[in-house]
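Hey all, sorry for the wall of text incoming. These are the two entities for the joint prediction.
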Amino acid sequence: VKMVSSLLVAFSAAALLATASAAKCESPKVTPKGSHSTSDAFFHFQTVVVSEFGVACSNSPKDLQLYAVSNRKIYNVASGESTNNFQVSIILEHADAYSQTIDISIFDEEGIAAYKKDQSATPLGVVSHYHAGLSRKWPITSETIAVLISFIAVYYAFTFKSALN
Amino acid sequence: LTIRMLLLSALFVSSLAASEDAWLLASKSPQSQYGVEGMDYVVQYGLYNVGGKPATKVTLDDRQSYPKEYFDVVQGMLQTAVERLNPGENITHTVVLSPKLSGVFNETAAHISYRPDVHSNQLRSGLTTVAPKMYVYTKADYERRFGSNLERFLAFFVFMSPMTLYSLYAYVSSANK
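and here's what came out:
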């Protein structure tokens, strides 16, 4: 037990050191730059929501790493190479992708550490995307229905003809 | 007893990893079953840091897999960077494309590069896993296979109705005689 606890201490110390962080965003201004979500449950394996936005900070930090929170899940945010453009990709199972407004809260490294302790921490900004819901393909194709109707018609014709005889 | 041994060994291995540099596993996979002209085609990239140090200045570049003549980008960036990926963290990045032309597209992989520690001068680079060969169908093919065929059936019934209705009329009139 003593060995386990000392290992735990060593690991958590290493993890804390690893996350001791860099840039902070002062006076943030978050501007949405477009978002898109897939709306076909048959065509895609999962529903994907992609949201792009810009973040302007008064202190123009160099190595800004942002995090996004949506539906209590934390996502890492990817950034564009040159322009002030960030992207969050959220993947939902089709069952969870009903029509809804998806709110994405943006945090910097300090902010996400505060969020992990207290979920009511203030984000840099919130980006919203309205997802209209999914369309599904009917499991029965129209060809199947046509074949069934023709079978019924032929069966009816056959019995009618034999009744005539 | 075995569970305790498993936990101990897991902690031991992870504490060993804590002294190692960052190591990224990169995957690329399609999120869409088919490619169809003009319809969404979603590509998903996953970057996982399985090392013990944060990976910094991570770049992901897949522009060469989807040239502008063949694909429109609906949303998302094909060239991105992640400033920092802590040990154990991952990022899933997706791009929504729209194919412009039909045909076969070869297997493709994206390029990644990263620094294995916060203040490291070393640059590690590599490729993601390969997305399989992709076939983009024409819109007409897709509509024929999966689209609503209601108009086709209605047209068929309209064409068939004269013959069928005449036969019915002939039978009814002969039955009444």
